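We keep the chain:
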Amino acid sequence: MLYRRSFLGAASLLALPATLRAQALEKPKLTLAVGGKNLLYYLPLTIAEQLGYFKAEGLDVSIVDFAGGSQALRAVVGGSADVVSGAFEHTINMQVKGQKLRAFVLQGRAPQIVLGVNPKTMPNFRSVADLKGKKIGVTAPGSSTNVMTNFVLAKAGLKPSDVSIIGVGATQGAVAAMRSGQIDAISNLDPVITLLQRSGDLKIVSDTRIVAEADKVFGGPMPAACLYAPQSFIDKNPLTTQALANAIVRADKWIQAAGPNDIIKTVPEAFLLGDRAVYIDAFLAAKGALSPDGLVPDKGPETAQRALASIDAEVAKASIDLQAVFTNDFARKANQKYPRA
């Protein structure tokens, strides 16, 4: 009941000037972990930072970038980060391990992950079954790109042990690994995917940047990038959590109204991987998979659980409380504050 009263008081506090609001927030200065910040998967996070949306909510957010989502997850579990910008499915996996993590605002309504093969090392590729015994590059072992790989392999009758998983990151290192033939296939995101595709160094096998294809692959809406935190953080810091959700929802809506030139002018130059045209193509390919409002789809958690259960025996046999891995309460309030872009 005490939590309910403090949470309902958030609306009036949010109307205060930023300087006073910062004093009202329980934890205005915090650390946020992300795995592959340059990826379009996390574009709302970058927009919220670059356009000052976090600061406008009275927040001082220190963003720490890791090679992959699994490493960002370890940061929050280990206590070196307060919040994670990461893949939704980690909240389910960690509940199975006894860790209470909860997503509270969505950045992506489809995974945007693309699995493709290397035309140089696999010129005669015909089906996913051909990947048996091959080296597949992912952003980091255990990350969402690894989960996607396992899922696609499972549908083809292959086990994770049938391939070699190699962490290649989400920047030029991933591109170089494909072009040099160090890996036979890759599971990664934009702008890496578009860069490889344009240079002829990638043959796409499965593309979840397309919402309809993602729904087909996973059998329903598959929530992707989100902000999630330990339930204890949310309980202790409801106003801070609301401020984070406000900034991301505002960024979600800005992106949907933005054109390619708006994006190019806003993201850091280093994110473009040396080719603005590629980044524009990547943005246009990924835009439809980004969340328009920060809300987790009703059937999304169920889809994520089903996908994970198909590749993980522990998830399959576990009794999972899906209502405990996400909440739309903060995103709904954010939409009331920012009804338009």
Notes: Residues 208 and 322 are 23 Å apart (CA to CA). The chain has a mean pLDDT of 92.
